[in-house]
Amino acid sequence: MKIVFLGTGAAVPTKNRNHSSIGLKFDGEILLFDCGEGAQRQMIYTDISPMKINNIFITHLHGDHILGLPGLLQSIGFNGRTEPINIYGPPETKETIENILKIGYHSINFNIKVYELSTKNPMKIKDTEKYEIYSYPMNHSVPTVGYIFREKKKPQLNLKKAIELGVEVGPNLKRLKDGYPIKIKNGKIIYPEDVLLPPKKGICIGYSGDTTPLEDFGEFLKSLGCNILIHEATFDSSKKDNALETMHSTIGDAVNIAKIAGVTELILTHISARYDDKMDDYINEVNSLNAENNNLNITIAEDFMKYPLKSKNK
Fold first, then answer.
1. Looking at residue 164, what is its pLDDT?
2. What pTM was computed for the model?
3. Where, in this chain's numbering, is Zn(2+) 1 bound (predicted)?
């Protein structure tokens, strides 16, 4: 389970940073967040397999977040994909995908299901046995949503206590772990709460997309128990005017949202091309903030960076 950064640049790609795209590897599945130009080529240098992508989450329809979609969809079609693929995004995503499918000659023989999301209210947009995903309205120059991935964890079985209560090793242990009461040989009923420990705390990751800083977003992440925030920080804090003009965030903005959210890990992405060969100001500010904040680790994302994920005990 890990995050793979395929592209960490902003509107203009550079020799060091591709357009925005993030892969999340989870339980044999790959969830793709944004798909900037060149995303599929970036995947070649990682262990992200395009054929294992079943769900794509687009934050907004600026080109640096979507222009990798035509090539990606055509390539996986060329490679014989037949399984459907889900694409989530803000209003007008359906029209955008329809236009993408009109580009050139191709052999896309799989269904593409498009889900347009509210830019007014948070939504739970996906709910599986092992994880759930929320969208959250962000504030940018075009309709934009952020996303939250939240892992589900089942309670752990206290095997020692179960055996002490007379439960035999076998199918009944699984039934208890799945939340069902069982009857043992002496007729006594054992309830799940008799033998279950609190579940581990699952991974919870927030991804802002492009946005001005939103304190409400931080509060929402806190309510879900998020421990990781991937937040755009296009500029260092000395460029606050640039951030306001373009409706983006600074390093300081992202740190403030991370503090409100109560996360322990903040990963900065969507770095302006102006820093490509002169990152000193950006790095110095991050180093300074890391020294000031003992409970928050701040990382600058780089293309091809792999960030391992591990659930923690409560």
1. 85
2. 0.88
3. 60, 62, 140, 210
